Amino acid sequence: MRIVPARDxxxxxxxxxxxxxxxxAARAVARAAREHGSGVIEVTNRANLxxxxxxxxxxxxxxxxxxxxxxxxxxxxxxDIRNVMLSPLASDETRAxxxxxxxxxxADTPLHALSPKFALQLDAGERLxxxxxxxxxxxxxxxxxxxxAFGFAGTMRQRPSGAIHRNDVVTFVSSVLRRFxxxxxxxxxxxxxxxxxxxxxxxxxxxxxxxxxxxxxxxxADASLRLGAHAQPYxxxxxxxxxxxxxxxxxxxxxxxxxxxxxxxxxxxxxxxWQSVLIPGIAAHDAHEVLRRLHALGLATDTHEPLARLIxxxxxxxxxxxxxxxxxxxxxxxxxxxxxxxGAVHLSGCERSCAAAHPVPVTLxxxxxGRYDLHRDARTVARNLTIEEAAERLAxxxxxx
Length: 401
Ligand code: SF4
Hints:
alpha+beta
């Protein structure tokens, strides 16, 4: 498990297979956060968890808790490469294929040299899927799952490079990763770095694939399906989804989510790349009661709620680079914004924009405590705003739209 230093103590990342966390493991994570950290638990934009404020003398105890809860890698050096994103509503079949890929990667020791940021996406065309995060390699099923389109160094919205048969997926992924490592220089950590130098044609020379699907495009997805109560695809049950406030939970809330999953669903949670949580496996007649319980815990369950569309980085509390306490300021902004479901707003403590894995239309870049420059579509439209001034600007632009 990777534990890195941050301003508020150690930052421990727990990788979840396809975002899934059993209720039992959720209680273990809550206990670890309470006993060995600050109690703050974050859902990341790769549907993993982070525990903040880990004490220096608690690393071994924390790792033991994670391993006991079944959250560790199968080999010590294989933790970082378990980086395969799925739809939160992926079928059991897709999850099984992802497990095969991850197992193959963990068993292949040379692949452990990949950067921890090297990321894969496996998709079956689900209506709820993150299509905006770029991945080093993505694969998307078509032809009723018989074949997978694939592409490199971009998002699934882009033109595919080719297609392979389902039976070849695991071998293909391993071959792609091995070829990347064979061709990349020490400075080239991501697929985009390598392809910028050698070109896609040379990279693909080593593979057999169908290149005649250039016009294939993935079906659109609907991110609003991450919130609310909905019938579950592939199942007879429902799921309920809710947004964690600015990607954060405390230990008591995570335990309460585990209780809901145990008593009214099938005992598991699914984290999403929108830093939200789904509870799958709910009987249809219980779905709205589960949603009510999620809302009572302080989670946003409707796209109209401001906290459903605000994201913020760690801010000055957790990061020495930050010019402002972005989390606290985002909570103040949420209280001032009108309810509507238009566009995400991102508060960033500095220009690095860690919290946004893809471009967000509106970003407030901190320039001093409580002060922000407002950027819209990558252009600066106002400088040095207070949170109240920013709220007024955002409300006005919504009214004008
Ligand atoms: S965006 Fe800047 S301030 Fe915020 S967490 Fe990243 S590096 Fe720190």
